[in-house]
Amino acid sequence: MPPPGKVSRKEDGKAPRKEDLELQCEWGSCSYVCWAMEEFCEHVTQHLQQHLHSSSGGEDEEDDPLEDEFSCLWQECGFCSLDSSADLVRHVYFHCYHTKLKQWGLQALQSQADLSPCILDLQSRNIIPDIPDHFLCLWEHCESSFDNPEWFYRHVEAHSLCCEYQAVGKDNHVVLCGWKGCTCTFKDRCKLREHLRSHTQEKVVACPTCGGMFANNTKFFDHIRRQTSLDQQRFQCSHCSKRFATERLLRDHMRNHVNHYKCPLCDMTCPLPSSLRNHMRFRHSEDRPFKCDYCDYSCKNLIDLRKHLDTHSKEPAYRCDFENCDFSARSLSSIKSHYRKVHEGDSEPRYKCHVCDKCFTRGNNLTVHLRKKHQFKWPPGHPRFRLKEPCDDGGAEVVFLVFESKAGATLCKRQKSCS
């Protein structure tokens, strides 16, 4: 219910606005609700103060006070820091910010009549990213730091609103980005504000079901559309046969087939700088900075570490939300696969080997089969095989396609292997 004297936007027949936030506290068994971020953060601050005070321990405590001193009590979170209370403070304030983004996501989804809710696991809705340090503003001559992302992003926004226009030529005026090391200019403050999110990593909306955060509503809606059933994915890539729900998603995907960036250490080419960095880290580096706190395991990224940590837990990390289904698994990918096969009927093998006619439900299983059973190989830069029409001698032809951009032209490398 809205606070006294306030009329709900749904009741007055108007579309919801971002100011109409129903912010519900999920600290322990608390069910406090308010409609303003300032009030919400103040309420959560009281939880933090009481929690840190009660868990500080004393000489008379029988249990080790450090065992759960910096544990987050937000529902379905499980965060615990053994380093300092400051880590917990930043973490809990991010829950406040995340709660607001999920509310904005709910409103955005309700405004799209053609979109269904996210079908992913509800148990991940309060899993938020690690916050290793303070939120630091790197605007020139500023360097203010914050524990609360809400205040940090508002502070950075104020820089963009106060930025003065500067003359460029006779008639043009621009605003300059004052972030450390950045030389970008923009026609107005609104564009500057959007640009600053690339420096701060600010997100503007989150999925109310799975908790995923996005830089804009378009990416959030894409997240929903990617979950549509196969019969609704009408737009197919001509290079890898992957299907998409909208033509724009297909166009975005097609860009990944053009490789602009070449590895300096091998023949691998990549479509993005980020994919080249990943390739360098996984193929040409022995550095494993992510280490398990419970054993000697170490890995190269946080995703692999989180998967490994599941092996130390006896309880399944994910459960199927489908009505009357009690399936559970340790990984989100297993839950997704279960949902497609059991609840969407996507269990028919769709990938057929052209050599021995064996069928597979997953494309990567066919790739492994071709490589191990029939000794097929592909050149660097190819993640899988692509089958084409039979060759002249009757054998099937495997075609590898990689698009490279050189001197403004897009080149297609083609290699074939006949069985």
Q: Care to describe what's here?
A:
- The chain starts with 22 loop residues before the first strand and ends with a strand.
- The N terminus and C terminus are likely disordered.
- By secondary structure, the chain is an alpha+beta fold.
- It contains 10 helices and 22 strands.
List the helices and strands and how they pair.
Blueprint: E1 23-24, E2 33-34, H1 37-54, H2 85-110, E3 135-136, E4 145-146, H3 149-162, E5 166-168, E6 172-176, E7 185-186, H4 189-200, E8 205-206, E9 213-214, H5 217-225, E10 235-236, E11 243-244, H6 247-254, E12 258-259, E13 261-262, E14 269-270, H7 273-283, E15 290-291, E16 298-299, H8 302-309, E17 318-319, E18 328-329, H9 332-343, E19 351-352, E20 359-360, H10 363-373, E21 397-406, E22 409-418
Parallel strand pairs: 12-21
Antiparallel strand pairs: 1-2, 3-4, 5-6, 6-7, 8-9, 10-11, 13-14, 15-16, 17-18, 19-20, 21-22
Helical content (DSSP H or I, runs of 4+) = 25-40%
The structural class is alpha+beta
Distance between the termini: 68 Å
- Distinct helical segment count: 10
Question: Mean pLDDT, as a whole number?
Answer: 76
Q: Give the strand order of the largest sheet, numbering strands 1, 2, ... along the chain.
A: 5-6-7
**C-alpha geometry:** globular
Beta content: 15-25%
Flag low-confidence runs: 1-18, 58-68, 387-419
Number of strands: 22
Q: How is the main sheet built? A: 3 strands, antiparallel
Rg calculated over all Cα atoms: 26 Å
Short structural description:
The chain is of the alpha+beta class.
